[in-house]
Amino acid sequence: MYKAQGIKPAVFNSIINKTPLSYRTSRIVGGVAPSEYLAKLESRNSSTPPISSKNLDSYLRSRLINPTLLRADKFEEFMEGGQKRLLGLIEQAMGKAAYSGNVPEEGEDTKTIEDESEVALLLRVG
Q1: pLDDT tens over the chain, length 126 residues
Q2: How far apart are CA 75 and CA 72, in angstroms?
């Protein structure tokens, strides 16, 4: 489903898009859009009871999943929101803001080499 939408495996296989599921549920949701698998979970069949929309939405929210975005198949917004919520949990656990890439990390080499003789020396040594 994701590949057909042009979404790369590195994106859809991200921790942000992973939720522990039972084997049976995984078979129901695999390979189809969220709007389709949520409808399957709500209607089910004669061997398994349906899940009410209210209960399913509550279950999704308990896992920090926005059911509105999921039901609308808004993958980019879903992933962006998931990333923010996951980062928030990480920051809460760490007790501080996470590095966001806006500032060089401690020990990161930010010096540029402008002297060509120094570049030549580095190339010979390396």
Answers
A1: 566 667 777 766 777 767 777 787 777 777 788 898 898 888 877 777 888 999 999 998 988 889 999 899 998 898 888 888 888 888 999 999 887 766 666 665 655 555 565 555 555 554
A2: 9
| C-beta of residue 42 within 8 angstroms of C-beta of residue 50 | yes
Q: Write the DSSP string, the chain.
A: -TGGGT--HHHHTSGGG-----HHHHHHHTTS-HHHHHHHHHH-BTTB----HHHHHHHHHHTT--HHHHHTT-HHHHHHHHHHHHHHHHHHHHTSPPP-SSSPPTT--------HHHHHHHHHH-
Residue 48, beta-bridge partner list: 45
Residues 67, 37 contacting (CB under 8 angstroms): no
Query: The tokens of 95 are what?
Result: 């007790």
Residue with tokens 């129901």: 28
